[in-house]
Design a protein that fits this description.
This protein is mainly alpha-helical. The protein contains eight helices and five strands. The strands form two sheets. The protein has a three-stranded antiparallel sheet with strand order 3-4-5.
């Protein structure tokens, strides 16, 4: 692994990005469903420096549009993103890991068909914050947790880095597959800008979020629509189920690890014993080999549970928190609408038309409802596929484990039979 600071690559100039307006975006002008604007946007990344979005990885010709796998029902896919090649960087101030982000696309929003940039975790965190700000009505996929307990997990170990790489890769793929998030200007900058300079601190709340908090502080929502209340109930039950499975799985891994320690001590005992028993040497040595093979099979099974099974559970725990946050934002928008509507209903002048801001609030509620329903369906579809793949893989791994153990012990049977026949001939 490289221990130096990554060398910045040449850039080919600045180009403004196309704004995508949304009824609930942070800009006041975006409150209209039919209004859009074009102009310079603040694309400074976490430390405030403007980004360059036109640096290519290569100048190869445009990709042919490819068909997505069956999991997206045959949709045409025109944006491919991968995260790989983690590298460790050491400087006088800090030590950190960067990952290569490769993009291939046929979209006209990008200057070139291929890009390759390096990003660290806080860049991904910046992207997610920007997506939450600019797309408040949508479910933003979760990132792996940033903080680890020192002394318990080595964040620079190959195992940890690889687990995080897989999670970051999944995060970007989920964003890239989303019909709205994938066109976000900040996502474009993240994928194509060569240098992301980081600004410390949390992102500011959007104007929409501030106005809703101001208007609805102390207002009690009349009640969620039945479908959204059902979503909340489902998430609560799903959280409990995942929590139970996670606790049991961790206990199983702990017990398997303890059993593995015992197996590693158990096998050598037979090897040592074989050196003192000439008649039993081959049999005892065979038992030692069987125990060693079983030990290796168990180690693989335990690693698979730790590296493949548990991360999916934890991702969906974080996914649930993201979904609950979106539901909470939806409730805030509904509360704002109800507050303004009540003010109109109880006013003295009944002949005055309904104010425009009330109609806008109604549009925002309807937009939030539509976006949330669409993202809920997409999330449920992804969840079914992820857990089907996860559980099938877990079943296959367990079958392979027992087959390896069975094969190890079956290989000992002919040896013992030969010994028994040799003993009978001698007698």
């Amino acid at each position: 692994m490289s221990t130096g600071t990554s060398k910045p690559l040449a850039s080919s100039g600045q180009k403004s990005l196309q704004d995508i307006c949304h009824p609930l975006s942070a800009e006041e002008s975006a409150l209209s469903l039919h209004t859009s604007s074009t102009g310079e946007k603040d694309l400074s990344l976490p430390n405030g420096t403007p980004v360059d979005t036109s640096s290519p990885a290569s100048s190869s010709s445009l990709l042919n549009r490819l068909q997505l796998d069956d999991d997206l029902d045959g949709e045409t896919r025109d944006l491919f993103v991968t995260v790989d090649d983690p590298k460790k960087h050491v400087s006088t101030m800090e030590t950190y890991i960067t990952y290569r982000v490769c993009t291939k696309t046929t979209r006209t929003e990008f200057d070139l068909p291929e890009f390759s940039v390096r990003r660290r975790y806080q860049d991904f965190d910046w992207l997610r914050n920007k997506l939450e700000e600019s797309q408040p009505t949508h479910l933003i996929p979760p990132l792996p947790e940033k903080f680890v307990v020192k002394g318990v997990v080595d964040r620079f170990s190959e195992e940890f880095v690889e687990t995080r790489r897989k999670a970051l890769d999944k995060f970007l793929k989920r964003v890239a597959d989303h019909p709205v998030l994938s066109f976000n200007e900040h996502f474009n900058a993240f994928l194509s800008a060569k240098d992301l300079n980081k600004r410390l601190g949390l992102a500011l709340l959007t104007k929409m979020g501030e106005s809703v908090k101001y208007v609805t502080g102390g207002y009690k929502l009349r009640g969620r629509p039945i479908e959204f209340a059902a979503m909340a109930d489902y998430l609560d039950v799903f959280t409990q189920k995942l929590g139970t499975i996670d606790r049991i799985a961790q206990r199983i891994i702990k017990e398997q690890s303890e059993y593995l320690v015992e197996l590693r001590e158990y096998g050598p005992v037979y090897s040592s014993w074989a050196s003192f028993e000439e008649d039993l040497h081959d049999s005892l040595d065979g038992v030692a080999g069987c125990v060693s093979n079983c030990s290796s099979a168990l180690e693989e099974l335990t690693e698979d549970m730790s590296e493949d099974f548990l991360p999916v559970l934890r991702e969906y725990v974080l996914y649930i928190e993201s979904m609950k946050n979106v539901l909470k934002k939806r409730d805030q928008v509904q509360a704002e609408y109800e507050t303004k509507l009540e003010a109109v209903v109880f006013r003295e002048d009944k002949k005055t038309p309904v104010p425009t801001d009330v109609e806008r609030c109604q549009d925002r509620v309807e937009c939030f409802n539509a976006d949330l329903k669409a993202d809920w369906d997409r999330w449920q579809n992804n969840k079914r596929q992820d857990f089907r793949q996860l559980l099938t893989g877990m079943a296959d791994k367990n079958i392979q484990y027992y087959e390896k153990c069975l094969a190890a012990w079956e290989s000992l049977i002919p040896l013992l039979q030969d010994k028994q026949e040799a003993k009978g001939e001698t007698n």
